[in-house]
Amino acid sequence: MIKVEIVNGPIGFFPTDDNHRQDGAELTFNGRVRATEHGKNITALEYEKYEGMAQTELKQLAKETVQRFPINDLFCRHRIGRVNVGETSIHVVICSKHRQEGIDAMSWFIAELK
């Protein structure tokens, strides 16, 4: 299953789902705004959403990840608007049979997203 959401405001995390008990790995990645960007101190980042495009592109990237790697599920929430230092800008959960498959998928997904 793939679930992708763009949210305007604080990110609520996806709860652990008992339906995934057959999976050996459930990986979670929370990307936060760090205090420096390109060597300069910052207080926040501003994420913009182009009507329909961000959701479509994020869903396409999620589909490609599921096709490329032997994973069962990918859930992603990405925040738009102002995100202050230390706040979560992206939350991703990947469920897979084995941990390495999930780790590889997560690394690829995040690298492609950036």
TrEMBL record:
In terms of Gene3D superfamilies, this protein maps to:
Molybdopterin biosynthesis MoaE subunit (3.90.1170.40)
User: What are the recorded Gene Ontology BP terms?
Assistant: Mo-molybdopterin cofactor biosynthetic process
InterPro entries recorded for this chain? Answer: MoaE_sf, Mopterin_biosynth_MoaE
Protein's name in the database: Uncharacterized protein
Q: Which organism is it from?
A: marine metagenome
